[in-house]
Amino acid sequence: MGIAFDTSHNADVGVDTDVISWSHTAGSITNGLLVIGVNFKPDATDATVTVGGEAATPWGYKAAYNLKTMLFYYRQPVAGAQTVQVTFNANANRCYGGSVSFSGVDQITPVRSTYGASGSSTDVSVDVMSQANDMVVDMIIADQSPTAAVGPDQTLAWTLSTNYLVGGMSYEDGAPSVTMSWTLSGSQPWASVGGALIPWQISKTRGVRYYIDVNDPDLKILNAQGRPVPPWEILPDSWIKVSGIFLPTGKVYASYIQDPELAYIESASWTMGGGLSIKTDRGEFLDVMLARAAGRSTM
């Protein structure tokens, strides 16, 4: 399963403010990742991002010519609308942001390093090191209000040109080196940052992370040290051993996939109101049992 675009959204330009927000509506995606881009001018010099009230992870940035563009990411966005909020460390003279969600992204190591570039011209570009099957994402910012046209090999996620600031996000399939380029309608100072998303894949060498015995009256999910695992700490891209469903056997299986007592957790997300929602490669019965074992079923 490769990385696939889900949806994108962006905010209007903020003027002399330290907070902006917008709503991002993600689909019902597996191994999802939300990438957030933020652009701004002084007095602000830094920003933090939350998605549905939970902190997003800073990924990379480029600052030049009193302009700053930043990327963040957030694992497993829930299906439906969530508020993306950007908080600056001071009032930003001009600011805005946007977000793009993707499916099929590795949840343990979702991203590679970011790369930045800057200049003052009509041609905007940044070279990003990646690999085949990655997805490269970039964000640009330019001064004043030129229009910005995305490069021929990229797909436009969103762009905004208004009120003395222009920018946007795009994405492109990965390769050993990918040049993310834009063309401005007029020569202006600009900055660009980009990086690659890593595709999800079943790891046949990764050890078993969780254990559960269906004969346990408390149906606790345990870690490798035998300690109970809270539902909000259940991670996707993990193996869980489910004991007690099948009769004991001495058979040795060639892989985890063939062993009926092992299940691969494809996605897992937890909310205060909904409890744990979990999806494995073994079907709905096990998914519901694991959700209940972790605290509260969402079914």
C-alpha Rg (nearest Å):
22 Å
**What level of helicity do the residues show?**
under 10%
Mean pLDDT: 87
Judged by helices, strands and strand pairing, the structural class is mainly beta
Shape: elongated
Number of extended strands: 19
How many helices? The count is 1
Number of domains: 2
Largest sheet: 8 strands, antiparallel
The first-to-last residue Cα distance is: 26 Å
The amount of beta strand, in percent, is over 45%
H/E element order = EEEEEEEEEEEEEEEEEEEH
Low-pLDDT segments, ≥5 res:
none
Describe what you observe in this structure:
By secondary structure, the chain is mainly beta. It has two domains: 4-197, no CATH class; 208-293, no CATH class. It has one helix and 19 strands. It has one helix at residues 284-293, and strands at 4-10, 14-26, 33-40, 47-51, 54-55, 57-64, 67-75, 80-103, 111-129, 135-143, 148-150, 155-162, 165-173, 177-197, 208-213, 222-223, 238-243, 262-271, 275-280. The strands form three sheets. Strands 1, 2, 3, 4, 5, 6, 7 and 8 form an eight-stranded antiparallel beta sheet that branches. Strands 9, 10, 11, 12, 13 and 14 form a six-stranded antiparallel beta sheet that branches. A hairpin with a 2-residue loop joins strand 6 (57-64) and strand 7. The two termini are 26 Å apart. The mean pLDDT is 87.
